[in-house]
Amino acid sequence: MTVDAAELLQMLTEDEFGLLEIPVKVPPVGPVDRLVAAYEEVADFVRQYGRPPAVNPADIAESKLAMRLKAMCENDEQRLMLAPHDELGLLAEPDPPATLAEAIADDPFGLLSGGKELFDFQHVPKTQTMPAEVARRRPCEDFDRFRQLFVDCHVDLRRGTRSLLPFEKPSEIEPGRFFVQSGVLLYVAEVGERTHDAIRKANARTRCIFENGTESNLLLQSLASNLYKDGKRVTPPDVTAPQTMDLDARTPMASVYVLRSLSRDPQVGDLPTLHKIGATSGTATSRIAGAASSTTFLGAPVEVVQEYRVPRRSERRIEQLLHRIFASARVDAWFEREGRTVAEADEWFAVPLGVIDEAVDLLMTGTIVNYEYDPVDRRLRLRR
Which end of the chain is more exposed for a tag (fewer CB within 10 A), N or C? Predict the structure, then answer.
């Protein structure tokens, strides 16, 4: 259909209902506009009643305006933005009183009146019970006496003859017991004479030695509170060690292996603890055949530095668990071609070989769940 030009022009000039008019876009309301509008409500109240709004339990609306004005006066940024609109001087910062008498005289809300002394407090405890001594960490001067105890405790945890359990009650805190507080192993060397408070709660000073070479004389109840929030108890050693895995001689075996790169790339050489943790259903030697041409092995020769023989079909799970433990030390390597990533090598970790051996031992005893890897100290530590 063709529309006549004259007819179209007539339609435009005779737009009786304004259907062709483009509405003017209203600018959005910004935070400054809202602040000014809130101030104007307060100013309207002052114009109407001749005084600033006051906190009035019988008038919620006036109380809200009073609190709003107070908040504006105490906010330097808002006072600066509202200065051009403050015709009534409501936001002027008052001069501080020169004397206590002036402060009491200028008491519009009657907070300081009523015939009571200025420091006559109500609804607060008359006295506050404070410990005579506040426990603080300090270096343990005779830490050599306890060093081997921590070493033996870690060995027991790895073997599974000790375990970590939730802390349950203060009566568990006894001399000779181990606990974990915020991921740090502590040894209770001494518990002083117990005293009882008004509700018969026992308390005593303790001497706690921490594996980082510090000590503290925490109150027993304070130590218990810390252990409830972020702690574990270490069970006494079990005289029965876990049995080693007894496998039939005909059980098919696979390998979890650790490799070291022989690359001459300086980026690789700068990481002396760089190791690849992998798994194969065969042997590590057969797996690394042709490593020099594979991006998985960083395109360079490698050598096997450790190999763990495990039952077939368990190797991938063990590999995944080790990758998860050392995830914080993963070294991502990728290979580009024409500006595009064509391959990634994501099984390399900057972890000392001895720590990997330690993790495998913990896996075999089932106690690895109690540990995590610290990439800064490069060691396994008790999980927080």
Answer: N
Sign for the CA dihedral angle at 330, 334, 340, 343 comes to negative
| b (16+ CB within 10 A) / e for 226-254 | bbeeebbbbeebeeeeeeeeeeeeeeeeb
Structure confidence by residue, pLDDT tens digits, 270-294: 888 999 999 998 888 888 888 888 8
Are 12 and 20 in contact by the 8 Å Cβ rule? The answer is: yes
Strand partners, 345: 333
Q: What share of the chain is helix, strand, coil (3-state, %, to 5)?
A: 35, 20, 45
DSSP 8-state class, residue 330: B
Residue whose structure tokens are 């490698």: 302
User: What is the residue extent of each domain of the chain?
Assistant: 33-85, 138-234, 253-382
Question: Per-residue pLDDT tens for 207-227?
Answer: 999 999 999 998 998 899 989
Matching residue, tokens 């908040």: 71
